[in-house]
Amino acid sequence: xxxxxxxxxxSFELIHKKRKSISIKIDSYGNVEVQAPKxxxxxxxxxFLEQKWEWILQKKKDMKDRLDGKQEKVYEQGEGFxxxxxxxxxxxxxxxxxxxxxxxxxDDQLHISVKQLEDEKIKQALKRFYxxxxxxxxxxxxxxxxxxxxxxxxxxxxxDSKTNWGTCDAKQQLTxxxxxxxxxxxxxxxxxxxxxxxxxxxxxxxxxWRLVGKIMPDYEQKEHWLALSSWKMVV
Length: 235
Hints:
This protein has helices at 42-51, 53-68, 119-145, 185-197, 206-215, 219-229, and strands spanning 2-5, 8-17, 23-26, 32-37, 80-83, 86-94, 102-106, 109-114, 155-159, 166-168, 173-177. With 235 residues, it is of the alpha/beta class. Strands 1-2-4-3 form a four-stranded mixed beta sheet. A four-stranded mixed beta sheet has the order 5-6-8-7. It has a three-stranded mixed beta sheet with strand order 9-11-10, with helices on one face. It is flat.
């Protein structure tokens, strides 16, 4: 089926089945599937679709961006980088007098001050910013959820992992990927809760997931964000 709303047209597959409510699914290629209870009138389906219109358009855009693949970053004025789930432009400041290259977030921009105007210098200053922010954000999140656990992490480290967002070993030492600073706060909270739950259950067994779900019932939404967005969490 095809429906046009707010000057945008969306094609979708409508499936009637035995269920209690209408739901929308968007696959990894941006295809939209609407499932509705048997006997649901078409106007009711379209009204529901329109209520979710902006969300659908954003999801389809995210899927398209993901399929287009990772884009090579350039270190020029205005290039966008993720921070806390949103993309902000960088503002490069050349200042040979500063003690150390650094980056700060202010006025909805990532201000990067460097002694030398070199791509690698800008990149490293930005990475240090993410490392520092990740440590602060993770520690804040741990304090937020600590009341759910009888034990505390023995140590917290920020690392550059190619495969994990976080880890917890048998000694209850937690590590987190610095790129988490690019994720929304609720996604950072999820990764923190996930690893803190490993202090109780080291494996991903049913008991582990029950504990995660008890503390964060919508954790699957956070996993979904990471699955769709990890390709663009780059410096």
